[in-house]
Every structure is written in structure tokens, then in C-alpha cells.
Amino acid sequence: MYEAIVFYAFGAVLLVSGVLVVTARNPVHGVLFLVLAFFTAAAIWLLLRAEFLAITLVVVYVGAVMVLFLFVVMMLDINLERVRQGFWRNLPLAAVVGGIMVAEMVAVLARARFVENVKPLPAGYSNTKELGRVLYTDYAYAFEIAAVLLLVAIVSAIALTLRRRKDTRAQDPSEQVRAHPEGRVRLVSMPAERDS
């Protein structure tokens, strides 16, 4: 009963934070809600005993999103004084998001105290190994289709952003390979001069 209540509570937080990511007008608020959504999904995976997926989600996505956001702030040459002024304005929302994440972790860790009939896992069980087995056997075709879609997306992104500029110089490897030393280097014989 406890696990069901916590699961539905986390699901509600995940849905609300996902909607707020899309509807937030302030990009800082959107990123905070996105971090909350990722963290809540990780907490749900912890409830389902998928620790590897939970840790991967937190390390890769939460870390990558925050680093990406910082790079965007630095690359767009945003006025840092204005960003610092908005720090205190965004602090209450950040405190609420942080408090929700702490409450979720407390709820996940309190499961062992409130749930008596937790089925123990067999000796030598590894959820990473089980995840790999299921992913590469039962869902092999879906995994391959997702890999192909990601490959097409990468190639498309490169093709859309690749532009040839007329004002830049570039090396032509085929021209460099066809070059011969006779055409490039000329030896000149000069008589030696004596100092008087």
C-alpha cells in the first residue's frame, strides 16, 4: 500500500513538472522543473528497484542539462549582472524544487521501514545484467530502430548546420597528396662569400 501511494505521488509530481517545463516562460524555471522531472523519474525507478537506470538518469541527464544550460548562458553572452539580479527572484522556486527532491528521497528510503513484505532479491541478482538481457532479447528490434533514428537525427543535425563559408581557407588533402618535391622545392647553388 505504501509503495502504491508513493508511486502515484511521484507520478503526479512528474506529470506536473513535465507540464511546467513546457509552459514556463522563464528559462531558469523551465530548467529547474526539468531537473525535478528527471529526479522524480529516478525516484520512481528506485522504487522499481532499477538502481542502475536511476543513477544513470541523475548523473547523465541532470548533470548534462545543467552543464548545457550553463554553456548556453555563456555562449549567448548574457549580461551576468542581470542574471545575478534574477538569482534572488528564482531562489524561492529553487528551494521548493529542492525540498520536493529531498522529500522524494526520504519517501524512497523510508520504504524499508514502512513496507514489511518486500520480496528479497535472489543472491547474485544484478538489475544491470537483467536490463541488458531484456533490452537485447525481448526489445532488440525496438532498440535497433531507436539507434537508427538517433543516427539519422545526428546526420541530419550535422547536415543542417554544416555551411561552407567563402571567406575561410581550408586545406585540400587531394591536392596535397598529388604534390611532388620537384614542383615545390628549388635548390639554388650560390657561391660562398668571404668576409674581408
Explain what this protein looks like in three dimensions.
This protein has 196 residues and is mainly α. The protein folds into two domains: 1-119, Up-down Bundle (Four Helix Bundle (Hemerythrin (Met), subunit A)); 120-160. The protein has nine helices and no strands. It has helices spanning 2-23, 27-47, 51-75, 80-109, 111-114, 127-137, 140-161, 173-178, 181-184. α1 (2-23) runs antiparallel to α2 and α2 (27-47) runs antiparallel to α3 (51-75). The longest helix is centred in the middle third of the chain and has 30 residues, at 80-109. The N and C termini lie far apart (107 Å). 12% of the residues are buried. The model has no long low-confidence stretch (mean pLDDT 79).
**CATH class term of the largest domain:** Mainly Alpha
Please count the beta strands (DSSP E, at least 2 residues each).
Answer: 0
Radius of gyration: 29 Å
| SS strand fraction | under 5%
How many distinct domains?
2
- Described by the principal axes of the CA atoms, the overall outline is elongated
User: How would a textbook summarize the main sheet?
Assistant: none
What is the overall pLDDT average? 79
Label the CATH architecture of the largest domain: Up-down Bundle
Distance between the termini: 107 Å
- How many helices does DSSP assign? 9
The percent range for helix content is: over 70%
CATH superfamily of the largest domain: NADH-ubiquinone/plastoquinone oxidoreductase chain 6, subunit NuoJ
Structural class: mainly alpha
CATH-defined fold name of the largest domain: Four Helix Bundle (Hemerythrin (Met), subunit A)
**Uncertain parts:** none
**Element-by-element helix/strand order:** HHHHHHHHH
